[in-house]
Amino acid sequence: SYELTQPQSLSLSPGQTAGITCSGDELADLPVYWYQWKPGQSPLLIIYQGNNRPSGIPERFSGSTSGDTATLTINGIQSMDEAEYHCQAWASGTAVFGGGTKVTVL
Amino acid sequence: QVQLQESGPGLVEPSQTLSLTCAVSGDSLTTGDYYWTWIRRPPGKGLEWIGYIYYPGSAYYNPSLQSRVAISVDASKNQLSLRLISVTAADTAQYYCAAAPSPGDHFAHWGQGTPVIVSS
To answer: CA of A76, closest CA in chain B: separation in Å?
Structure first.
């Protein structure tokens, strides 16, 4: 079965740039979605189809894909960005999620 | 605005059947706007897609669960249901209902989730 792999955690200081990776076989050939998930809230879509940002999502969030890796980049991270980030793709008609990356802003 | 609210028994004994419901408001399950989905998250692990149903009844399941799972719609109550038979401790998770505009798309709406513990 298809698998997506993310780092478990990432710690940064405010203003730094976060790069969260999501790895899967030939992932660049699949539409990739990124969600931000804060405690007590529902997941929020922040990137769709690899590199598109829904309306209302700040420009500091961007996405890219290449080969087996999709990357969510948060430029100038802020304390409000502290959350779990989950990647998602569809493979052979099945939705697949990464394990999620917990981002801490110190 | 579509809202989803899951409910369930909380605790299920091993080998028994888990039944969950998801009350949907803000849209009808029968209009064909969404693929209505169940997703779960075991403790300490990532999200696992269980399957979806597209009214009036086409369902598609995760191959890893296909032999044990059924998703259905109660149109009269506008409720989505999940039935998982022969549960084990590995089925302990937070269960979420969600809605995607189409297969291959993102999950646009999520419930808050309901916990399920499989234990005797």
So the answer is: 26
